[in-house]
Prior knowledge:
By secondary structure, the chain is an alpha+beta fold. Helix content is 52%, strand content 14%.
Amino acid sequence: MIWNYIVHFFSMFKLISVFDIIDILCLSGVLFVIYLFMKERRAGKLAIGVGFIFILLILCEILSLRAMQYILSHAIDVGLVLLVVIFQPEIRSGLEKLGDNSLKGIKVIGEKNSTQTIAMIDEISNATFELAKSKTGALIVFERNTKLGDLILTGTVINAQVSSYLLRNIFYDKAPLHDGAVIIRDNRIYSAGCLLPLSINSDIIKDLGTRHRAAIGASENSDCIAVVVSEETGIVSIAHEGHIYRNFTRATMKKKLEEYLVHNSSQAKSKNGVRIRMKHK
Length: 281
């Protein structure tokens, strides 16, 4: 009897074609991308709840619990619409990054000049650590492949050459634009006094203030890099892909920015700086 089951099991492999294998690999790839996207977002917790409801629905079908099955099936129909509305920012962020990654391989025109970028990073680093020395709060955002036009419109367009003196003047605590973010586009100070979306991640530790939450929020919704100077401690931090790293020195900050902006390494490991862990509930 057992032998018959074994023979039947292996005979099923004869029915599998090359297209079936391709289909399985494609589906596995899609599921893996979804897993990576949801792993460290609010959607990850929600996926567990949705999976639990589907398990209940299967049990109701097996046990013929018609009333529960009716309620759960209709709840899922309505819930799918609600999920799209509630998680619109996460869905938008995922689609933007998907489009960005798909074009990286063919993007040739308009590449930034690395010499100019390195010079710009030097000026930014000088300004950042002068501000840190005096504990002057600052938030500088580097636009990369995802355009930040909607954030630029919330500030004042300057479109000036990057200068340490200009940045220090912008973030001087009596200056009218010091509370907002500076956005760097094409190696230039493009806009100042910009308002960024605050991260609504409930797992962010309470020690981080509004500037840090704004930096994390901007990096959650795009591929930008955000540099933050704390006005309480003078600590320099860098936010990327919804994570924030602290305790940079001038040298380690320059090295990290060169990895992201010159070498365009979106997967660069943060060996420089200490990553702030989210609190665990």
